[in-house]
Every structure is written in structure tokens, then in C-alpha cells.
């Protein structure tokens, strides 16, 4: 379900480099490449572009057809050129899509929890389409205000006085409960809830109001998509470690 | 041509307390770990470390040798966060300069070109600018764009590790990614290159010319250090030692565990380090199995 939602996020991206952080987004990107978006380019997580989706957790060293060389220095060039689509994790997200992966706590100099750092989030969000994946939808993630803005949200992007943020493009936030997108004011709202989940459950586990109508239910995978996920993309079932059940 | 070979034990003739050191590699990949271990054995301290951080940052933090870390991230790759770095931040409030990765690259490239800054879009409207209030933006003279002006970084010394090299300081990488080791060598005032194996200059041309990543123009000392990237990956020579990396990470659990880890692995010389690593793996061979 979540993987298919991730794949749908990549469906309309066209000829871009998929950047997927986490197991479910990685499955989603591979699934999109095999179904809805054959133009999508996938990396092996190391330095190679792969003509066919590499096995989950594997690199070019484990086999497969290499179609390009993409060392880290080139990733920054592709990113700045804008031909990329990221789906990143988020330790915190606020209603405008500001994302934090740097540190938790009010004191930046002595954080309650030091996280990985801003990584590429500031640059990704001002250069190309960026989505977020949250494996456990909770009010600890969906907060009123993030402690550190790494990925830039709509409020800040719209307040920026120059034209430099014209490539800012937040798409969706996919969680274990729902798919969220942004309304005309740049605020998060529920687009679809996963089967068996009610909008009220999503709202109860979100630290800010989610207003507006809910478009409906997240679609279920087709038989062919299920086959691809189970037999081709993730035969070892790594997805179950990220989202139990 | 000058021979630039340096004994590992003489590293402190190049690296001194208070310096800014740039460390090549990426996360837990091809880090100059033998050079880092040598710093741990030395009196050198009060270092500003500039790195796409991995266990180089964690080890130097755990040993109390770091004044500040400048980074785009600190990660062990297969383990998301280096616990020693995390402890230094959470328990001691270790000062950091945290950049977006693209900003970090801009800082290195600016340093390499001796520019005071390079512009980038990355970082605009993010808290990276608020966490580092010394950062400024620059208005484009051509249109209505504004960019982050990332100040150039020029380390006193760069430490990098490659697969092959010669005594003159020419260096070759044989793995899939150069990372930014050549940029570090350009940006730093002096560069120490450690290599898995020293070879004759003529042997370097056996591989593709693109593999000759750094050259003697920008290398001041060459250290032959087999296993010099252990426990990080140095493919094709060897991969990451995940068992040892986990052992290293677990040592962050308490000061006592760090002391025990240091006693077993870090307090001797490089040969005893590798012997202790072999012993760790030997202990993990199941009962009755033949190695």
C-alpha cells in the first residue's frame, strides 16, 4: 500500500533521477520505473545508474546492468540542474512542510538528540520536487513547529523576496496511515487515507489541524504490482521491517 | 623528483594541535583511518575537523581531540549515526558548523580555488543560515536572484586515503567513487596521502588514466598503510568491516566501554591494531568450524 503510494508519487516525474531514502520509498521508485514511469533513473545507492532496478539493498557489485556513472560529486550537479526527485525521511514535519533531520530540542548548541544533520534537505527542497516518507505517523513527527528547518516549507519559500526559490516544489507526505498533500495556502491536508484508517485517526495522530475534505481512499496495489514487489523488487520482505504488518 | 614517503609515526611532523584538518572519504567509506588512528596515539588536540563525517569524526571526538566539526552529515552508512559524535554533541555540546551537503561542497571548491566564497541556492530559507549566523547571502548582479555565499574552507592539512600511489605523491583510486579527495588536496595547504600500496610510477598507468585522482603537485607526504581505511570500505581491496564497526559503535555505551575498546584496539601501534581486529574475527568463528 505505502510502496504503491510512493510509486504513484514518482509516476508523473518523467526523466529524472529518483532519490529515495528508506526501504518503502526505494521499493516505490523501483515499482514506478517498472510500471508508470519507465523514464525514471535509479541509482544503486553507490556510484552507478542501473538500467534495471537493482535488488533492494544491493549495489552494482551484486550484478545488474550499469547504464551510467554517478559518483557523489555528480549527484550535486544533477541536483543543481534540477533533474531529480527526492523522497526523504523526516524526524519532524510541520503544517507547511518544513522538515527536520538535524537535531531535536530547543537548544541547538546542546541538542536533546543529535540526528544525522541537514544532509541534502536544504538544497533538495530549493532545487527540485521533494516528498517525505514517515514510517510511523505520530504527533512527535507532525509537530506545530520543527526544531530546525532543514527541508524548506511553503511558508518560508513564499516569504522569500527574490526569485531564487522558483524551483521549490513540495509534493506529498506519505505515511503508514495516509497520503498528505498541500492546499492552495501551502498547508498540509489529507489527500487519501489508507484502507482501514479513518480521517479522524490521522488527525488524532497529527500535532496540528488537518482541515479540508479528504479526497478518498489510497488505492490498493494491482495483482501485477503485488507480484513485482514480492517476486522482483523485494523478495526478502525487507519492507516488513520498516512498516510492520 | 622529491621522495615524499613518511613513516606513519612521523605524522605529527605535519599535523599540529590547533590545526584545521580536512579528512577525505565519505561517511564510512575510504576514510584515512590509519592516519586518524595515528592522531589518536599522538598529543595532537584542539582540532577543527572538516569532513563528510564518519568514524573519523567519532573517534577523534571520543578521544577528546576536537574543538569543532564542520560537516554536511556524520554517518556510519550501515549505522545511521555515529554514537560517539552524538554523545559529544548531547553530553558536551561540542561546537559544530553544520552545512547542507551541497553547501559543504561549495565551501571546499571555493577553498580549492582560493575564492572567499562560492554562491549556491542550497541553504536559502533553511535554518542552516540561522545556525551559522556568520553566513551571508549575495545578490546576483545579473537578475533578481539571491544566493548563499558559502565561505571557502582552506584546511591546514588534508588527510586522504587511496588504493595506490608512488613515492612522489601521485595517487590512484580503484573504487567506484573518487569522493572529494582531490578537492581536499587542492583546498588544503598541505596534503598527507596514505595508500594501500606504494608502486612504481610506471605501474600507475596500468589502470585507466581517470583513476589517477591526485598528483604530486598537491601532495606533501605519502604514507604506505595497508588496511589504512579499515574499518571503512576500500573496495576493491576490501569492504567495510561491519562486525568491527558495530563493536566500535557499541563502545560508545559508557566511558568504561570506550576505555576497554581503546585498550584493546587503539593504544598500541598499527600492527597491534590489525592483530586485535583479526583476533576479534577469530573469536567469532563458530565452535567446531574450521577457518
UniProtKB/TrEMBL annotation, chain A:
Database matches in SMART domains: CoA_trans (SM00882)
Keywords (A to Z) from UniProt: Transferase
Keyword Mitochondrion among record annotations: no
One GO molecular-function entry: CoA-transferase activity
The keyword Hydrolase is annotated on this UniProt entry: no
InterPro entries cross-referenced by the UniProt entry: CoA_trans_fam_I (IPR004165), NagB/RpiA_transferase-like (IPR037171)
Signal sequence segment: none
Family classification: Belongs to the 3-oxoacid CoA-transferase subunit B family.
PANTHER family membership: ACETATE COA-TRANSFERASE YDIF, CHOLESTEROL RING-CLEAVING HYDROLASE IPDB SUBUNIT
Protein's recorded name: CoA-transferase
Species for this entry: Cryptosporangium phraense
UniProtKB/TrEMBL annotation, chain B:
Domain of life from the UniProt record: Bacteria
SMART domains hit by this protein: CoA_trans (SM00882)
Name of protein: CoA transferase subunit A
A molecular function (GO) term: CoA-transferase activity
Keywords: Transferase
Xref: Pfam families: CoA_trans (PF01144)
Gene source species: Cryptosporangium phraense
SUPFAM superfamilies: NagB/RpiA/CoA transferase-like (SSF100950)
Amino acid at each position: 500500500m505505502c510502496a504503491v503510494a510512493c510509486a504513484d508519487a514518482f509516476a508523473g516525474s518523467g526523466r529524472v533521477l529518483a532519490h529515495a531514502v528508506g526501504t518503502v520509498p526505494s521499493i516505490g521508485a523501483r515499482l514506478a520505473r517498472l510500471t508508470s514511469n519507465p523514464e525514471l533513473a535509479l541509482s544503486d545507492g553507490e556510484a552507478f545508474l542501473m538500467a534495471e532496478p537493482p535488488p533492494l539493498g544491493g549495489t552494482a557489485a551484486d550484478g545488474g546492468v550499469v547504464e551510467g556513472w554517478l559518483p557523489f560529486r555528480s549527484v550535486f550537479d544533477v541536483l543543481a540542474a534540477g533533474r531529480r526527485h527526492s523522497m526523504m525521511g523526516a524526524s519532524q514535519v510541520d503544517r507547511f512542510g518544513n522538515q527536520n533531520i538535524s537535531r531535536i530540542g530547543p537548544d541547538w548548541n546542546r541538542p536533546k538528540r543529535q540526528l544525522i544533520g541537514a544532509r541534502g534537505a536544504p538544497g533538495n527542497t530549493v532545487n527540485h520536487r521533494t516528498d517525505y516518507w514517515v514510517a510511523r505517523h505520530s504527533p512527535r513527527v507532525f509537530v506545530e513547529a520543527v526544531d530546525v528547518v532543514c527541508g524548506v516549507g511553503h511558508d518560508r519559500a513564499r516569504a522569500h523576496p527574490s526569485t531564487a526559490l522558483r524551483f521549490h516544489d513540495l509534493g506529498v507526505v506519505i505515511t503508514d496511515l495516509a497520503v498528505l498533500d498541500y492546499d492552495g495556502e501551502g498547508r498540509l491536508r489529507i489527500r487519501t487515507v489508507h484502507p482501514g484508517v479513518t480521517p479522524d485517526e490521522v488527525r488524532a495522530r497529527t500535532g496540528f489541524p488537518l482541515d479540508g475534505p479528504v479526497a478518498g481512499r489510497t488505492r490498493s496495489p494491482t495483482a501485477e504490482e503485488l507480484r513485482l514487489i514480492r517476486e522482483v523488487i523485494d523478495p526478502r520482505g525487507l519492507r516488513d521491517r520498516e512498516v510492520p504488518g | 623528483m622529491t621522495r615524499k614517503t613518511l613513516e606513519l609515526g612521523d605524522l605529527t611532523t605535519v599535523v599540529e594541535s590547533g590545526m584545521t584538518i580536512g579528512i577525505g572519504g565519505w561517511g564510512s567509506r575510504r576514510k584515512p583511518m590509519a592516519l586518524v588512528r595515528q592522531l589518536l596515539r599522538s598529543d595532537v588536540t584542539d582540532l577543527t575537523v572538516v569532513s563528510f563525517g564518519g568514524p573519523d569524526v567519532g573517534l577523534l571526538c571520543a578521544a577528546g581531540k576536537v574543538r569543532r566539526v564542520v560537516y554536511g552529515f556524520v554517518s556510519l552508512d550501515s549505522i545511521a549515526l555515529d554514537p560517539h559524535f552524538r554523545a559529544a554533541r548531547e553530553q558536551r555540546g561540542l561546537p559544530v558548523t553544520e552545512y547542507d551537503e551541497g553547501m559543504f561542497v561549495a565551501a571546499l571548491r571555493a577553498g580549492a580555488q582560493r575564492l572567499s566564497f562560492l554562491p549556491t541556492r542550497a541553504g536559502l530559507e533553511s535554518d542552516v543560515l540561522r545556525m551559522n549566523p556568520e553566513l551571508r547571502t549575495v545578490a546576483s548582479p545579473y537578475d533578481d536572484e539571491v544566493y548563499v555565499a558559502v565561505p571557502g574552507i582552506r584546511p591546514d592539512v588534508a588527510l586522504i586515503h587511496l588504493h595506490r600511489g608512488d613515492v612522489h605523491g601521485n595517487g590512484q583510486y580503484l573504487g567506484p567513487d573518487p569522493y572529494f579527495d582531490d578537492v581536499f588536496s587542492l583546498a588544503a595547504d598541505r596534503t598527507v596521502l596514505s595508500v594501500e600500496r606504494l608502486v612504481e610510477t610506471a605501474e600507475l598507468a596500468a589502470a585507466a588514466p581517470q583513476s589517477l585522482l591526485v598528483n604530486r603537485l598537491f601532495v606533501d607526504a605519502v604514507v604506505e598503510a595497508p588496511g589504512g581505511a579499515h574499518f571503512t570500505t576500500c573496495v576493491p581491496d576490501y569492504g567495510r568491516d561491519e562486525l568491527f564497526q558495530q563493536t566500535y559503535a557499541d563502545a560508545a555505551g559508557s566511558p568504561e566501554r570506550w576505555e576497554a575498546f581503546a585498550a584493546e584496539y587503539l593504544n598500541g601501534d598499527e600492527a597491534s591494531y590489525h592483530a586485535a581486529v583479526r583476533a576479534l574475527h577469530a573469536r567469532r568463528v563458530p565452535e567446531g568450524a574450521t577457518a
